[in-house]
Amino acid sequence: MSKDSQCSEHPHIPVLVEELKTGVISRRHFLRTATLLGLSAVAAYTLSGVANPFIGEAEAADALPKGGHLRIGMRCMEIKSPHQADFAERSNVIRQVCEFLTFTGNDNITRPYLLERWEVSDDLKTWTLHIRKGVKWHNGRALTADDVVWNLKRVCDPAVGSSTLGLFTGYLVQEYDTGEKDASGKPKKSSRLWSDKAIEKVDDSTVRLNAFAPQIAVPEHLFHYAMFIIDPAEKGVFGPGSNGTGPFELTEFTVGKGAKYKARKDYWGTGPYLDSFEFIDLGDNPGASISAMASKQVDGLSEADAVQVNAMKRLPHVQPYGVLTSQTGVARMRVDHKILGDKRVRQAMRLAIDRQKIITTSLLGAGIPAEDHHVAPVHPEYAALPKYGRDIGKAKKLLAEAGYPNGFEIDMVTRPDPIWELNTVQALAEQFKDIGVKVNIKPLPSAQYWEVWTKVPFSLTGWGHRPLGIMTLALAYRSNAAWNESGYSNPEFDALLDQADGILDPKKRSIVMAKIEALMQDDGPLVQPFWRTFSTVMDKKVKGFSVHPSQYIFANQYAVTA
Questions:
Q1: CA–CA separation, 516 vs 518, rounded Å?
Q2: CA-to-CA distance for 20 and 53, rounded, in angstroms?
Q3: Does the N-terminal peptide bond of residue 316 adopt cis geometry, omega within 30 degrees of 0?
Q4: 3-state DSSP of 419-450
Q5: What domains does the chain contain, in order, with CATH numbers?
Q6: Roughly how many angstroms between the first and final C-alpha of the chain, as a whole number?
Q7: Residue 323 Cα to chain centre, angstroms
Q8: A Pfam family name for this chain (predicted)?
Q9: pLDDT tens digit sequence for 153-172
Q10: Which of 105, 410, 434, 486 has a CA between 20 and 30 Å from the CA of residue 317?
Q11: How many other C-beta atoms are found inside a 10 Å radius of the C-beta of residue 278?
């Protein structure tokens, strides 16, 4: 059977079916892996014997009321380019206008979106992407393979500064020595596509990715924050009137104030049910969001922490939502700092904290302990390592060996909003005192924080949910990745991550992941106290809403009653 045939099937799928029947793998494992290999979600759910939740949602969507206006409170930050979107808030503003090739749902299953399907070769190196027919840009032009190729190549250009480059490194993109040296005399490195044929137009509706190494997570990479499909004619610029394929047109956008949209009546997909929609920026003060919900100035929030939810859940018109995800807060340390560059210091900082106490004080219990390696129990390749707790004596001994028997003093940068981030920094600072480390807390407004978050020696950064641990690690810790805020660069880590990327079976991948997790606990640049329960609130008049683990807002799915 031809690899490009619509009815082609990856040879590993019958193996998965047999393993499911004999109990070797779980239904969850089957669903995720079979769909990544190109089996439709409908077929995968049928074979698994699990009811497809999206069928019920589709039936419910047909009954949603039409018309009306929806207001959601969310920070509205400067947007330089969709391909540079770095957090959910920026991505949410763009997402209503521009779309992704794939869609990872609340069930953690990735489906085609602007694609109608894909096929992958036996060795996981060749991915054939079939573009959905009938999709048009707002200006009436059809979406084509040329558009997709341009977008994929653009995010692979280091000059663009897209975090997607870090995801593609290791199979589509390679680092190379530029022949130049930096100020310290070290060779300068850059990135480029490994081959002129790495991203290939097959015909007007087909694109092929030819990788030099196997990669299982390609469909999930295509749903990353910054992997928007934007109109090449706009050259990466986004604002009111931007051309897109999405359900809304952006009519107004003001940083720090809000974004307004009107519905497209010619949208190719589901919805929109609303006539119009807007984000309203409520600022950094968490009390402002509570007041806005209480007074019905907004109909919902993009996020609400445990303190805010507790304050609002008794309001008769408010519905709370929550889900445990791989969302977290990471106290990260720059490895090029004269103190934090010593791994013994980083180990001591990890041993200084009482995770459960931080969860209780900072999250009001809405989370579970983390293990300082940024791979979550919800990730399919997570490996459970032996637990270790707070050990003040060992931490002080490590500091003394590093030359700091009396501890040291350091500034720690954070944001005041969401409030759980500031609360976490305060809790950490109190616990670091016990090993002689004095932390001076430096809160910055969000806009200023994002200007320095990759530069300051010590800070706390909120990290969003990703469906796979290998995605998070590639974004945050791979050498020279755009979001590698700690400057971490470890060839052993990079090689292990490359190895994990090409392993199809999550159980086998977890064997390599155990090595990565242990390496991070020994050498890594982070103190990670917890995994958060992501929560928010909506007015009960909002229909069709469900919590996406990545904090994504899909306004075309929502409706409002009078």
A1: 5
A2: 20
A3: no
A4: HHHHHHHHHHHHHHHHHCEEEEEEECCHHHHH
A5: 324-533 (3.10.105.10)
A6: 54
A7: 15
A8: SBP_bac_5
A9: 999 999 999 999 999 999 99
A10: 105
A11: 20
Q: What are 72's strand-pairing partners?
A: 279, 300
Contact (Cβ atoms closer than 8 angstroms) between residue 432 and residue 444: no
**Cα(106)–Cα(108) distance, integer angstroms:** 5
Q: What is the DSSP letter of 387?
A: P
Helix 469-476 crosses helix 506-523 at what angle (to 10 degrees)? Answer: 40
Residue type, 455: K
Of 308, 267, 276, give the one whose Cα is nearest residue 291: 308
Q: What is the pLDDT of residues 177-230, one digit of tens each?
A: 888 887 777 788 889 999 999 999 999 999 999 999 999 999 999 999 899 999
**Taking Cα atoms as reference points, which of 297, 287, 273, 259 lies closest to residue 539?**
297
pTM for the complete prediction? 0.87
pLDDT (tens digit per residue) in 404-413: 999 999 999 9
396 contacts 281 by C-beta, under 8 angstroms: no
Which is nearest to 314 in space by CA: 71, 537, 532, 548?
Answer: 537
Strand 102-104 relative to strand 110-112, pairing: antiparallel
The mean per-residue pLDDT over the stretch 423-442 comes to 97
Q: Determine the Cα–Cα distance for residues 505 and 392; give it in Å rounded to an integer.
A: 39
Token digits for 347?
């180990």
Which residues are bridge partners to 279 per DSSP?
72, 259
Q: What angle (nearest 5°) sits at the alpha carbon of residue 102, between those of residues 462 and 535? A: 35
Q: Which two tokens stand for residue 207?
A: 């694109």
- Exposed (0-12), middle (13-18) or buried (19+): which is 184, by Cβ within 10 Å? exposed
Give SS3 for 86. coil
Token pair of 401 as six digits: 């060996």
User: What is the b/e burial string over 497-523, where b = at least 16 CB atoms within 10 angstroms of the residue's CB?
Assistant: bbbbbbbbbbeebbebbbebbebbbee
